[in-house]
């Protein structure tokens, strides 16, 4: 048997991002974002840490307690893990909405929706409501999606949106490999892991926790301390 290239998984992700750029789903800046993620992933040993597993457990609990959970998707996550996001949405009974930062907004949202439709899932991509306090195009959302959701799962973000969503009274769960990012710090729950690993594990935990009583789930969320766990991950990176 020919041994696999030691970095086969990360090369595969790069290839998906490159292909996504050529199709217009991923913004060219998405390649820079991906490179940043790769660097953090490398420093974290390219595996889910024990801390990330705890973050994922708290996130699964919060999503299961939600009345209207929503999964927000952009270009990068669509090409990296659309299939896995669909599985998660089904387990949670959550909607999925396309929300992007970089232009051309309407065209890219449509392309993202088409990609999900190819995998058998209709997702929201209309803009008929606004999240107050946001200057970027991310403010334009669907009324029946992000606008009316109580818990929003976001992935690979650029900063401002977490704060604006929280000010709008929503709970935010963010997947971001950078434990020092504003998104990670401002989220109710940050998951410091690669989306390609975090999303399937979140699905697995959600499936398992579905049978748990509400009180148990609430306890799990109450015990969670975002800042404390982020510091632990930062130390993990600094110590190598
Ligand atoms: O599709 P759009 O227009 O919404 O644009 C999306 C990007 C990702 C380009 C945009 O949101 C952006 O520029 O993001 P930033 O500011 O580069 O932040 C992205 C964060 O995601 C960084 O902290 C990266 O470390 C992190 N990241 C990158 N790849 C992954 C990741 N986190 C988890 N899994 C990854 N695969």
Measured on Cα atoms, how large is the radius of gyration?
17 Å
CATH H-tier superfamily: Phosphopantoate/pantothenate synthetase
Strand content is: 5-15%
Q: What's the total number of strands?
A: 7
Shape from CA axes?
globular
Helix content: 40-55%
The assigned CATH architecture is: 3-Layer(aba) Sandwich
The ordered H/E elements are: HHHEHEHEEEHEHEHHH
Could you say which structural class the secondary elements and strand pairing correspond to? alpha/beta
**Average pLDDT reading:** 96
Straight-line N-to-C gap: 33 Å
Which strand order does the major sheet show? 2-1-5-6-7
Secondary structure blueprint with pairings:
Elements: H1 8-23, H2 29-43, H3 50-65, E1 69-73, H4 75-92, E2 95-98, H5 105-118, E3 129-130, E4 140-141, E5 151-155, H6 160-167, E6 171-175, H7 182-186, E7 189-191, H8 195-209, H9 214-223, H10 226-239
Parallel strand pairs: 1-2, 1-5, 5-6, 6-7
Antiparallel strand pairs: 3-4
Helix pairs in contact: 1-2, 1-4, 3-8, 3-9, 4-5, 4-8
Bound molecules: ligand PTJ.
Ligand PTJ is lined by residues 27, 29-30, 33-34, 36-37, 40, 74-76, 80, 100-102, 156-158, 175-178, 181, 194-195.
